[in-house]
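2024-03-11 09:14:02 INFO queue: dequeued item Cell surface protein, len=322
2024-03-11 09:14:02 INFO validating residues
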Amino acid sequence: MRQWWWVLIVVWLIAPSRSVLAEGAGFTVTPELPANQLGGNTGWFNLLVKPGQKQDLTVAVGNQANQAKKLELSLTNAFTQDNGQVGYEPNQDKDESAEVQLTAIGSKPIRIDLAAHQGRKVTFQVTPPANGFAGQVLGAIYVRELTESDAASASGFAVTNRFSMVVAVQLQTSEKLAPPVLHLVSVKAKPESVQATIQNAAPRLFGQLKLQTEVIPAGKTKPVLQQLTTNYAMAPNSAFHYQIAPPKGLEPGEYQLVIAATAGAYKWRFTRAFSLKKPMSAKPGTLSAQKSTDLWPWLWVLAFGVVVGGLIGWWRGRRSRR
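2024-03-11 09:14:37 INFO prediction written
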């Protein structure tokens, strides 16, 4: 009897879990927060800096591995990824609305060698413009491993593992925050989606962005496509490509895209006409993803059947022993 209950418990525990955890980085990066830190110990730099004065950004790097490591530390600029999350990886993105970027006012990349279990402090310097800047400048200290792993797979092919860590850096010369300013820059018809380029033209990091979109044929009022997206975030002075994917495709013709965007108390509404010259196909994976989601009720039915079957077998076993 107990064995069948363990089967049910195991099914219940593993059903919601689909995440994969990367392990084995073998090094740590800890920021040393200065006195001008805003908001307490957040685990990242959130600093009120003075115009024209140098500001140190110090991190303690520790090698926890049994072998030496070569690491590269560099400053990066934050950007908005197309999945609606803020990215901090090295990039060449520079929005035309950005007046100040972290890499432009900070020191160059630094490479260090750490012996096994050795620790070291690394300091970057940033110098804000003499006249300060409006809003926020957002970026990161990006730490990546240059050492290749000696691990090999069972097939004999060498496996190279490279790890990176990020410590966010947000700077302000005033505690007054600028409101976000959203623009619909362009609308393009792609083979499998309608692509809307959305820009945050303000030096302001913000989240909880909700996008309610409709695609309406020209001259009509009823939408042929609707899409709701929530919990997006945008980096200061950045843009991203938002995809509106029709689950059943879209016929050629003239259309109007309507986007209602909200973030807290801020609201925007955009309307833009676009043309579709060729039929737009349904995005691959849309239906299969739905089928995958619909599979879970059947797994619960299967688990229930296993438990019931176990109970019947246990009951019959007891009767036969009697």
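2024-03-11 09:14:37 INFO annotate: Residues 253 and 276 are 5 Å apart (CA to CA).
2024-03-11 09:14:38 INFO item closed
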